[in-house]
Every structure is written in structure tokens, then in C-alpha cells.
Amino acid sequence: VLRFYRSCLLFAIDDQRIVLPWWMKMLMSDEQCAKYIDGIAVHWYLDFIVPVKVLNEVHKNFGDKIIMNTEASQGDKPWDFVKVQLGSWARAENYANNIIDDLNHWVQGWVEWNLALDMKGGPTWVSNFIDSPIIVNKDKNEFYKQPMFYAIGHFSKFISRGSTRIKLTQTSVVKSVGFKRPDGAVVIVLYNRRNKPVNISIRDPQRGVIGLNLQKQSINTLIFW
């Protein structure tokens, strides 16, 4: 039977960071179990409790395993009384912040749970209504691309498959992550968390220096060859 599934990858955990790294250590201590595990799947829902640096420990112990964020959504918390917030920039910032953190700590992919939902945040058979990057208004026969959609696009559109993360000097104000693409381009995604514009400089030893003005609470992508 296994020969029909050789191209499939099996990811363990598929749960919150809070179970790391101890749950993965337990799984890998079983030789019969360990030989089937290709990667580690994590969710984002309790990331505000568990620091992202726990992923460094996971990578240190299991460096040959892929780490993927396999589920994220917003409006999921009990205190989120308004599930669908059309035009919410705060939720776009939440995604950008989380994706940058994950990519800087060995995560190789990031998945939104539902790319498109209706105006109520469904359909759902268990009434767990949530927000989505695309909201479909079936009554008006139209759909709305939310700020979350474009936040994800800063990464999915410009960081191509096969890219390699490069080291950047981080600041307390601007979060950033950089990659070198297979075509030789360098991609840097920058998130200004402040409620005011910030001036920064990008210094590349081979290409020189460029100055940028990042608007308040903005997500920016820089590409150069």
C-alpha cells in the first residue's frame, strides 16, 4: 500500500505551539513512529501565549523536519463578538506580524484556514464563524478582497518556491524578513508597527544603500537584483 503514497508527506502535531517541543520529542522517541514523520504542523491560535522562539528549539532538535504553519484565522476567539470585520487593517497587521515571525524561525510555509467565506463567516457545521481574506456576498453577487488578502500577498506573491532566507538586522520598530529567490532577486518584507512613519536604510554590501520611508502601520515589499 505504501508505494502508492510515496509522494505524500506526513506532518505530526497539527496543533498549537504550546505542545512544543515536548510532544514532538515524545513522538520521535518511538522509532516506529519517527520513521514516518516528515514535518511538524503548527497552528497560530495560541501564539500570543507561547513565544515564537520555541520553534528554534524544535529546529535545533529536529533540523531535518519541515515546519509548517497549517492553520490560521481571525475572529476565532470567544471575545471576538464581530466575526467578520470588513476592511480591518488590524487583522492584516496581525497576519503580517505572525508570518514574519514564523519565517524568521524556520517555518517554511503558512496556510490560512479559509481563503473565502460568506458574510457571516461561514458556512460551518459547528457554528465556528470566523473572518476570511475574501468575503463573498452572494446576495449581491460580489466578493470583497480584505486587507488580510493583500497582507498574505506580500509573501505569497513575491517569495517564490525555492527561495532561501537571508539574515537581516532586526529593529524594535520595523519587523522584517528577507529571501534570495532562485532568479537571483532579493525580497525583503517590512512591517512598520509604529503609529507614525519611520525612515530606514537597507544596506547591501554588493548593491549599496537605499533609504525608505515606511508609512505608519504599513506592510512593504522591496525587490531588487
Automatic annotation (TrEMBL):
Enzyme Commission number, as recorded: 3.2.1.45
Any Gene Ontology CC annotation: membrane
SUPFAM superfamilies attached to this UniProt entry: (Trans)glycosidases
Superkingdom field: Eukaryota
InterPro entries from the UniProt entry: GH (IPR017853), GH30_C (IPR033452), Glyco_hydro_30 (IPR001139), Glyco_hydro_30_TIM-barrel (IPR033453)
One MF term in the entry's GO annotations: glucosylceramidase activity
A Pfam family of this chain: Glyco_hydro_30
Example GO biological process: glucosylceramide catabolic process
Positions of the Glycosyl hydrolase family 30 TIM-barrel domain: 10-159
Reactions this protein catalyses: a beta-D-glucosyl-(1<->1')-N-acylsphing-4-enine + H2O = an N-acylsphing-4-enine + D-glucose
Keywords: Glycosidase, Hydrolase, Lipid metabolism, Signal, Sphingolipid metabolism
Domain Glycosyl hydrolase family 30 beta sandwich as annotated: residue spans: 162-222
Keyword Oxidoreductase tagged: no
Similarity annotation: Belongs to the glycosyl hydrolase 30 family.
PANTHER family in UniProt: GLUCOSYLCERAMIDASE, LYSOSOMAL ACID GLUCOSYLCERAMIDASE
Record protein name field: Glucosylceramidase
Originating organism: Schizaphis graminum (Green bug aphid)
Classification of source organism: Eukaryota, Metazoa, Ecdysozoa, Arthropoda, Hexapoda
